[in-house]
């Protein structure tokens, strides 16, 4: 099953039903499908205040959310799924029954040649400090993923990678797969997970402010549990007296088609295509075509930086990490935005968020 794992591994628990999903592709797909079905998505609308009052004497109380954009949103119910900031959002309605701290995890991504050497997600035995431990796993698109570390930190913003944490990740990963070739490293990154003082999922209506629902502290396996969590929230809303009307199968569009063709015979399809845009490859590392990037640009959410295309199509995720294709992608984004936007005006990531510091590929190759 796994010929490349360490001879020191004495045994394992095998879970044949385990699967692999791309977390960011999953979230993007859910958002785009929601928009297709009528959801209004407000980006960069940070909530600055929440008030609860009755519009008429003795009438039903409603929440009013104020945002930094000056938008006021009225709602009968509010679902607080603000991740790291869920405790702060709950504080706006005077609910301070939990708090959230950031738990940082450093990861290393290696190329697909390394990813082909294993077949399953390989976890080590869990520990108190490192949680489920350092995993060695193929990704949904064939790379190899190592990590994460698990360090509690005060900042909810800092996602810089750490040399000591990355060194530990490689050392621990080699206990599972001793012949890892770190010269095949593509990049490193760090993510922040919300860890509550409750140390369990918080899925409940606020006892302080009825109608306000906290969905917070969702640690692993939160991604796997997310469909079940959604159903639980629906049940809580119904129990609270909110009338929900389920759309018919004719009204609800379940299908969100991925903009990229990931089939094994893709290059043959590109070669035989009569569409010039389907034949034009923009990202040569990942074989992403102009047509695929155009489909991502027209997916319902305005795209203003090249990283947004990277997450949707993988253009820029290969060996050159976007050195060759990023200018071409920026040019396409500028053309889509119009209004005089130039290629050089399109950033790699949104300027509202400071780019994290990551270790160089040269550093990773020496671990």
Automatic annotation (TrEMBL):
InterPro entries: BFD-like_2Fe2S-bd_dom (IPR007419), BFD-like_2Fe2S-bd_dom_sf (IPR041854), FAD-dep_OxRdtase (IPR006076), FAD/NAD-bd_sf (IPR036188), G3P_Oxidase/Oxidoreductase (IPR052745). Residues 346-367 are annotated as: Disordered. Pfam families: DAO (PF01266), Fer2_BFD (PF04324). SUPFAM superfamilies: FAD/NAD(P)-binding domain. Residues 2-235 form the FAD dependent oxidoreductase domain. Residues 281-334 form the BFD-like [2Fe-2S]-binding domain. This is FAD dependent oxidoreductase domain-containing protein. It comes from Aplanochytrium stocchinoi.
